[in-house]
Amino acid sequence: MTAGSDAVQDLLPLVFAAPNEALTQAEAVLRRRPTPLHASVAHQVIGIWQRDFGDTRLALRHLRRARDWAARAGSADREADVLATLGVALVHSGRTRQGMDALGRGVRRGTGHTRARVLFRRAYAWWVLGHHKEALEDVRRAVPVLRHAGDVIWTARALTLRATVHLALGAVERAEADFASAEDLWAVTDQEHDKADAVESRGLAAFRSGDVPAALRLLDEAEERYAKLGTPTFMLSIRRCEVLMAAGLAAEALAEADTAIAELDSIGGQSTRKAELLLAAARAARQADDPATAIARAGLAVRLFAGQRRAWWEAQARLVLIGARHAAGKSSGKLVADAAAVARTLAGLGAPAAPEAFLLAGRIALDLDRPADAEPYLAVAARSRHNGPPLARMTGWAAQALRARAAGSTRGVLEACRRGLDVLDDHRMTLGASELRARATAQGAELAALAQQAALRSGGPRRLLVWSERWRATALSAPPTRPPADPELLSHMTAYREIAARAEEARMEGRPVPALEREQRRLERAIRSRTLHMRGEAHGDDARFDAGRLLDRLGDGVRLVELAVVDGRVQVLLCGQGRVRRFEAGLLAAAETEAEHVQAGLRRLAHPGAQARLPVVEAAGRRLEELLLGPAAAYLGEGPVVIVPPGRLHRVPWALLPSLRERVVSVSPSASSWLRARETRPPRGGRKMLVRGPGLATGGAEVTRLAARYSGATVLEHGEASVPRVLAELDGAGLAHIAAHGTFRTDGPMFSSLRMADGPLIVHDFERLGRSPYRIILSCCDTARFATVGADELLGLVTALLPLGTAGVVACSAPVNDAAVVPLMLALHEGLAAGLPLPEALRDARAALPPDALHRATGWAFTAFGAA
């Protein structure tokens, strides 16, 4: 063969080393009126490019020409090689029978080394179709021949494929061994696309072994590699959706899948990939409590998979479809039968999702009050509770809990829930980012609900308190992981502050800021990505909640009111005087609606001239008290009250409720958090700091007057109130007071911020503190707003401080009048100077304000959190 022939043949490996360069050179070959052999290679290269990165219709056209030219060239091996490429393209376009026929002809036509390559591609097609046994058999036959021929590239591809098939079957250790061997081989090649694919595959393996941060990091690395090559990343999107869902980021997974589907449609891409993306979108929609979208996406995926003859995939899609229909309120004997049939199909195919399908069949049967029918399905699902990755074991424990409930065993329900939540605890603490820890709790919501229902039925208030605490505010039990040095993250955060400050300045001047906003969003994604990559190091609070210890700390004078929600109704657990009593209040949904009315009223009262609205807001407060406290309001005693609300009620202005209006009231995310705050010791020296941010209507008037009161305090204002300086002074302070504009981000709670001289001080910044201030007062709007995520978790400025050593916070849950805040803050500090704890000082400060609507609403808007 001539040197020119060698150059043309080299285009085939080039298509996965430098895809776009290979495409350009192949098109150039065809313009030179090549020989049949060269024309065959060039058309094949273009066909591969179009198959994997472009339009499958164009791919088939070029690959058929490549096949015809190979026949004219009289080379059986050349023809076999093209038939293999054509077969894979036909399978990806949904023409399964034609594709497998072409691959079969390629196996028969090829010899030796070429035949082994064809076997690899047929194994790949078997994997795409979900025929894992056949895929492993073809790889078994191909690998020894490829190794003997010294074909490093194709041996690495075969090992990577075998590892991927092992993952599909749940054999993680075998997969990791093959991935490691393949990676050693890729290291000595220049196959950049294959290398990116190997990184992507390792990300999938990390996920299947339970390491979500590593999976996110590797998938992001793979995306960066693909971006340098300029190639689409549809398979990466499918895999990232799976990881995002496991991390509790279902809405993001749905958005990613839908975006990828639109992009795939725009280029006429692979039908097989579209079906898989639809399945990913359906799963994400189902997890995001959007059953209508899940039904639509899963139904289309089922039809595509059926047309492509992909039984393994079709069964997966049917499982999601049935689950979505059940979530939409449909239950019938036919749905039970459908779920059971899918479960048996998945079990027969060796799919790891089989236990989930059996659990679904059992759950639907229980909804129909058919426990005898449910038992065999739940028994099979429960077998997975001792083996496999965390979420698979969670499925098993959920099945076991449902079995126990059907059998009337409260003890069995609580034991299964305890074991299942322990599994999730271990998994959650592998996550370094507080956001992931909080969102991951959604996986335990069903077990927590089952346990609370069982505890309520058993009649013991103390038992219900223990189970209410078991899965409440667990993300706050330990601080987030903070790497000792991450220059890239710090660089992103510095750039983010600069861009955000420039954008804010431009908005104030009325200038358009689309370019700055795009860059701000890019930097937000980069910061969040680096944060989510962090692996957990800190352990949670290993000591289980002890109701007796809580009652001892409360003594006879303090009452703690924990609001548990069971089956949509608020259960009031009143703790104090050595006992726990239970009272039933109203519906959570009604309380949420009333709380929104109250918030709207407070917003109106923040403006002068709204005095007439005051009776309306007070009446809403009375209704809210009836819904939240019910008859328990008459038993609160005379002393301080600690409120522990569910996450969805943390915006309630508790001081507005009539029975709490004249009391010392504090709020805590959990009784455990209150105990930790109560037992936190203040730092030596009690260093004080005051911060005044830019743009305040009063100019931060209270800071100037407080500086005179605290003669030794550090005062940061004007240019000195920069984020790095503020963080340095906050770390380990005894008391911090920050007067700065607050912004709560509903679309990204971890980017909620306080406005400093050089840009926003965000939640991610607070999480870098070694120890946050013992007490902190945030005298600005929206600092006590939170996003409710996971099972019952909160993300926001206050919750970032609590795990880091802050024992007391005063913050605001509504927009307030800046001028009216000044006298409230001055009175609050008078109480602190007299030695009062924050909740008592805040109560007295409210009482010292003028009685008009503006000042009363300002006082109600502020809440004391913690116990200091």
Q: Please give the largest β-sheet.
A: 6 strands, mixed
The secondary-structure class comes to alpha/beta
Tally of strands: 16
From the structure provided, what is the oligomeric state, counting identical versus distinct chains?
Answer: single chain
Q: Which blocks of ≥5 consecutive residues have pLDDT under 50? A: none
- The termini sit apart by 84 Å
Number of alpha- plus pi-helical segments = 39
- Outline, from the CA principal axes? globular
| Arrangement of strands in the largest sheet | 7-6-8-12-15-16
User: Considering DSSP H and I runs of 4 or more, what fraction of the residues is helical?
Assistant: 55-70%
Strand content: 5-15%
The pLDDT mean sits at 91
**CA radius of gyration:** 31 Å
InterPro entries: CHAT_dom, TPR-like_helical_dom_sf, TPR_rpt
Protein name: CHAT domain-containing protein
Pfam families: CHAT
Domain CHAT: 619-866
Question: What's the SSE blueprint?
Answer:
Blueprint: H1 3-9, H2 11-14, H3 19-31, H4 36-53, H5 56-73, H6 76-92, H7 96-109, H8 112-129, H9 132-148, H10 152-168, H11 172-186, H12 192-208, H13 212-229, H14 234-246, H15 250-267, H16 271-287, H17 291-307, H18 311-327, H19 333-348, H20 354-367, H21 371-382, H22 390-406, H23 410-428, H24 434-440, H25 445-457, H26 461-470, H27 487-508, H28 514-532, H29 547-554, E1 559-566, E2 569-576, E3 579-587, H30 588-605, H31 614-628, E4 641-644, E5 665-667, H32 671-679, E6 688-692, H33 701-709, E7 714-717, H34 723-730, E8 735-739, E9 742-743, E10 753-756, E11 759-762, H35 763-766, E12 775-778, E13 787-789, E14 793-795, H36 797-801, E15 808-812, H37 818-833, H38 838-848, H39 853-861, E16 862-866
Parallel strand pairs: 1-4, 4-5, 6-7, 6-8, 8-12, 12-15
Antiparallel strand pairs: 1-2, 2-3, 9-10, 10-11, 13-14, 15-16
